[in-house]
Design goal:
Largest sheet of chain A: 8 strands, mixed
Number of helices of chain A: 13
Order of helices and strands of chain A: HEHHEHEHEEHEHEHEEHHHEEHEEEH
CATH architecture of the largest domain in chain A: 3-Layer(aba) Sandwich
CATH topology of the largest domain in chain A: Aspartate Aminotransferase, domain 2
Strand content of chain A: 5-15%
CATH class of the largest domain in chain A: Alpha Beta
Number of strands of chain A: 14
Radius of gyration of chain A: 21 Å
Oligomer: homodimer
Number of domains of chain A: 2
Largest interface: A-B, 70 and 71 residues
Shape of chain A: globular
Chain lengths: 397, 397
Amino acid sequence: MDSIFADRIHDVPKSFIREILKVTLNRDVISFAGGLPNRDFFPLQELKKSTDHVFEKYGKDILQYSTSEGFNPLRHYISNRYKSNDGLEVPIENILITNGSQQGLDLLGKVLLNRGDGMIMEEPGYLGAIQAFSMYKPEFYPVPVNEKGMDIQLLKETLLKSSPKLMYTVPNFQNPSGISYSEDNRQKVAELLQSTKTMVIEDNPYGDLRFMGEKKTSFKTLLPSQTIMLGSFSKTVIPGFRLGWMVAPENIMQKLIIAKQASDLHTSHFTQCIIYQYLSNNNIEEHINKIRDVYGRQCRAMLTAIDTYFPKDVSVTKPEGGMFLWATLPTGMSALKLFEIAAEDNVVFVPGDPFYVNRTNSNTMRLNFSCVDEATIKIGIERLGKAIKKLAAKNKS
Amino acid sequence: MDSIFADRIHDVPKSFIREILKVTLNRDVISFAGGLPNRDFFPLQELKKSTDHVFEKYGKDILQYSTSEGFNPLRHYISNRYKSNDGLEVPIENILITNGSQQGLDLLGKVLLNRGDGMIMEEPGYLGAIQAFSMYKPEFYPVPVNEKGMDIQLLKETLLKSSPKLMYTVPNFQNPSGISYSEDNRQKVAELLQSTKTMVIEDNPYGDLRFMGEKKTSFKTLLPSQTIMLGSFSKTVIPGFRLGWMVAPENIMQKLIIAKQASDLHTSHFTQCIIYQYLSNNNIEEHINKIRDVYGRQCRAMLTAIDTYFPKDVSVTKPEGGMFLWATLPTGMSALKLFEIAAEDNVVFVPGDPFYVNRTNSNTMRLNFSCVDEATIKIGIERLGKAIKKLAAKNKS
C-alpha cells in the first residue's frame, strides 16, 4: 500500500519537537524545550477590542472570500514598517501575506526547487525549514554557523563544488543557536553569493526581539535583487492567528501568488483585518520593548545559571536577542542520552539532532528562555547541570 | 532569470475567474461569473457573539500555537455530523482541519502525486483542483460527465489504457456543471475503481445545498478504504475564515499531518474555536435550509428565464443543488467570443475553457445563481439571450 505515496513524502522528518512537547505536559517538568513565545505578552484585551472594531467597521466584508495577495492595508503597514525601521523600500506589490512564515517556506520550495537543486542550509538550522524544503527534495549543503555568522571558508568551498540555487538563513538570533551574523560576516557572505547568483532566503521572525547590541544590515540591502525576506507576527504579537508575510522580486512574486492560490486561495481575511486593526490602534514598538526586556533578563539569568551550574567544558552561545541559546557538550557526549536523564529529573530541552540535515547523537542542544521566569530558569539549569554531571560520570565508568 | 523556477510552476493555470471578477466591479454589470456564496446568509451577529464567547471562555489559549491536526472539539463535531447526516463512522483521528478544502487538494497532491502519475479528472472539472494538482505534474485523464454522472464507457476505456492512481470527483452539484451522479452511476464507477485500486478524492463542498431530489450515497460507503473526503465550511457558514477538512485512511492521514506541519504548522486556532462555538450555539441545519430555499428559487428562476430568452439550441443542466448550472452553446460557437459581446451588454459569466485540462474556445459556460436575486436573474438572462443571438447572427454573416 505504501506505493500510493509520492516519493517526496518519504524521509520528511516528523517534528521531533512536537513529540517532546508531550513530555512537558507534566506540571513538575521545567521545559526549555518549547519554541513558543511567552503568552504573558499576548495582548488579549487589545485584540478583543480590535475584533469588536473590525466587526463594527467591515461587517460581512470580513467574512467573504478575498484576494490571494492579502489585505492591502496590512501590506501597506508592513511596507511602511520596513521603511521606518529598516530603511528599506518595499512596494506592497512585492508583499504576500502567508499563514505564518512557515507557509512562505513551503511556497518558495514549490516555486523554486526542482529535485536535486542545491540549497545551502545553516548548520545547525531551523527544523521547520528543513522539513518544508525536504518535501521538494533539494540537495542540501549544510554550512556551519558560529558566533560570528556563517563559516566563510566552508561557504566558499561549498560554492566551488556546487552551484546552489538557494541559501536559507536566519541571520538574527537564529533558531536554534541564538547566534547572529556580524556586519563583516554579512558582507563576506553577500560578496560570495553575488558571484554565484545564489538567491538568499532571509527568514527574520525574531529580528524585532533584540535585547543587546546594534541592529545589523539585511541581505536585502546587500543583495537587493537576490534576496527574499520572510516575516511573521507570531513572535511579536501572537502565533495562533498564523500570520506572516514574504517579500520577493516581482517575477518570483507572480509565481508565488499562483502557488498561494493553488495552495489555499488566500489567508483568512478576518484575522488579517483584526491584526491590522490591532497594529493601527496600539503602540506596537512599546509592546515589543516589553517582550525584549523580559527575554533579555531571562537570557541573562540562564547564562548566569549556566556559568554557576554547568561543567566548564560545556560551551554556550551568547544571544543578542530572540528566544534560544545553544549549548555544546564535550565531544562524544550524546544530548539524546542527556535528555533521558534530564527528563527523569524533570527538566527538558531539545537535543540538537533535528536541527541538522543528517546527524544523530549530536552533542548539542537548544535551550529556550522565552517561556520560563528567572527563578525557574535557575532551578531548571541547576537540575540540568546535575544531569550533565551524571551522564559524564556514567560515560567515564 | 526564468531558470530560477521549479519546473512544476510552469503552465500552472492562473485563475481566469479572478481576472474576470475585475470586470464585475462595475455596478451596472449583472454577474453570473462569481463562485461566491451569497453574503446575505453570513451569520454576522451570531459569529460576533461566538467570538465574544471564545475570548471569554478560552482567553489566551486561543492565541498560542496549536496542533497540526486541528481543534479537537471541531473534529468531533465533524465526526458526529458524518454519523447523524450520512450514517458514516469517521473517527476524529481520520480528520484533519485545513485552510478550506483547497488546502486539502494541495496536501493530497503533495503526499500522493509523483510526476506523471495518472489522475482521472471530471470534464468539465473544478478549476481549483486542476490548478492545485497541476503543481505536482500528474498525467491528467479527463473523463466527461453528463446529467447522470461520469461517462461509464469512457471511464472504462481510460482505466484500460492507463492505471490511474487517483480520481478527483465532485459528485454532488458539481462545480462547474451543477450535475450530480445518480445512484446507479456511483455504483458503476465504484465497481470499476475497485478493480483498479484507484483512490477516490470525493470533494463535497456543496453537498448540504440540495434543493431537489434525494440524497445520494457517498463513495466512502461504496469504497471505504479507497475514498478520501474533503469538506468545507465555506459554502454553508462563511468562506472568509478559510476552514475546511479532510478525511483519509490512517496510513495516508499520518503523511498528510506531516505535510500539513511542513506547509503551515496548523490552521488558525482562533477561527477554529469561533466556528466550533458558532456551530454549537446555533441551529446550523435551519441555517442551511434557508440557503437551500433561496438557491433553489434562484436556480428555478434562471432555468425559467433561460427557457424564455435563450435560443432553443442552447442546452443547460438542471441542478438539484449547489450554486451553478452549465450551458452548452451550439457547436462551433465560442463562449469566449460570447463573453466579449455579453460584457458590453453588462452581463458576464465564466466561459468553459478553464474547466478543461486542455481546451480553448469551448462552446460551454458556467452560470452562477447563488448571488443574484430572481428579478435580476431574469434581466441578466434576457441580456445574455440577446448576446447569444447577436453572436449567432455574426457567425452566419
